[in-house]
Write a structure and sequence with these properties.
- The chain is of the alpha/beta class.
- The chain contains nine helices and twelve strands.
- A hairpin with a 2-residue loop joins strand 2 and strand 3 (66-71).
- Helix 2 packs across helix 8 (242-254).
- The longest helix is centred in the N-terminal third of the chain and has 24 residues, at 2-25.
- The N and C termini lie far apart (92 Å).
C-alpha cells in the first residue's frame, strides 16, 4: 500500500506540473491563437489606420480627434482581419498622404487603398497585394462622357493629391489643361459637382460609391482605365506584424471575403464599367 501511495503522489505531482506548464503556454482566455503572439501597440488589439472621408471605403465621424462612428469596405475588412488574427480591432483616422511617409506610425497596420509602388516601398513596408482595381472616370453634370482617352484629354480633369491617380494624369494621360488637385476625394467630388472640373479620375470603386450614394449630384461614370492598382496593407519599416497580417489578408482574399465585401459596398458588377482606350 505504501508503494501504491508513493506512485499516486508522484502521479499527482506530474499532473500538477503539466497543468502549470499548460497555463504558462496557453494564452489568456484559453485560446492558442495569435492574441499574445502578435507584437501590437496595445496587447490583444490591432490598431488599423483608415482615411475617414473616403466614400464607400471609410466613412465616419471624428469628434475631437476621436473616431466615434465608421463604416465602409475598409472598416469591414479591418474588422475581418482582426477576427482572423484573434484580436480586437481599433480603428484610427490617418490622412491618406501620411500613411506612407517615412518614420514611425501611430498604427499597427493601415488599410487605406494604398497602391504598392517602388517609391512608397522605400518609406514603408507592404503586405502582399489583397485587392486589384483600375482607375475610373466620373464626369460633371451636363458633360458628355468621353468615349476615348483622347476625348478625356480635352477635359478639365481633377484628382486627389499624393495619389497614383494624379501621377497617372500627369505622366500618362497628359491632358491639354493643367489638372486641379485636392487634398481629399470629397474635395475633388465637390469641385466636380460645382463644375470647377469636368472629369474626376480616381480609383474606380470610390467613384462607383459616390455615384451610387448621390446619383443626382454627378454625371455618368464614363468608364475605367486599366492600371491594375495593387492594394497592399501598410506597415512601419521593419514591422514584425508584416508577415502574420499579410498571411491573414491573403487567407481572407483567397476565401473570397474581400470580393464579397466589394460587392456589398460597391454593388454586383461594380468593376464592369467599359474600358477607355
Amino acid at each position: 500500500m505504501r508503494r501504491i501511495g508513493r506512485f499516486i503522489t508522484a502521479g499527482m505531482t506530474v499532473l500538477v506540473l503539466a497543468a502549470i506548464l499548460a497555463a504558462l503556454v496557453t494564452p489568456a482566455g484559453g485560446s492558442t491563437g495569435h492574441r499574445d503572439a502578435l507584437p501590437t501597440r496595445l496587447p490583444g488589439t490591432l490598431t488599423v489606420a483608415v482615411d475617414i472621408g473616403t466614400i464607400g471605403l471609410a466613412e465616419g465621424t471624428v469628434v475631437k480627434g476621436r473616431l466615434v462612428r465608421a463604416s465602409g469596405f475598409e472598416i469591414d475588412l479591418a474588422q475581418a482581419l482582426a477576427r482572423k488574427l484573434g484580436v480586437k480591432p481599433r480603428i484610427v483616422d490617418v490622412p491618406f498622404a501620411r500613411v506612407f511617409t517615412p518614420g514611425s506610425k501611430p498604427f499597427d497596420v493601415s488599410i487605406s487603398h494604398v497602391t504598392i509602388t517602388a517609391k512608397r516601398a522605400k518609406s514603408v513596408d507592404f503586405s502582399r497585394p489583397y485587392f486589384v482595381v483600375n482607375k475610373g472616370v466620373l464626369v460633371s453634370p451636363g458633360v458628355a462622357p468621353p468615349a476615348t482617352l483622347a476625348d478625356l484629354r480635352k477635359l478639365q480633369v481633377c484628382a486627389q493629391a499624393a495619389t497614383t491617380s494624379i501621377d497617372y494624369v500627369r505622366t500618362r494621360l497628359r491632358p491639354r489643361l493643367a489638372p486641379h488637385t485636392f487634398p481629399s476625394p470629397i474635395d475633388a467630388l465637390r469641385a466636380l459637382t460645382d463644375g470647377y472640373c469636368q472629369a474626376m479620375i480616381a480609383d474606380l470603386e470610390i467613384l462607383i460609391a459616390a455615384k451610387r450614394d448621390e446619383p443626382e449630384l454627378y454625371g455618368p461614370i464614363a468608364g475605367q482605365i486599366v492600371t491594375n492598382e495593387r492594394y497592399g496593407a501598410v506597415f512601419e519599416k521593419g514591422s514584425k506584424l508584416r508577415a502574420p497580417v499579410s498571411s491573414a489578408l491573403q487567407s481572407l482574399a483567397h476565401a473570397g471575403a474581400v470580393t464579397r465585401l466589394a460587392a456589398r459596398w460597391f454593388g454586383d458588377g461594380w468593376n464592369n464599367a467599359p474600358v477607355l482606350k
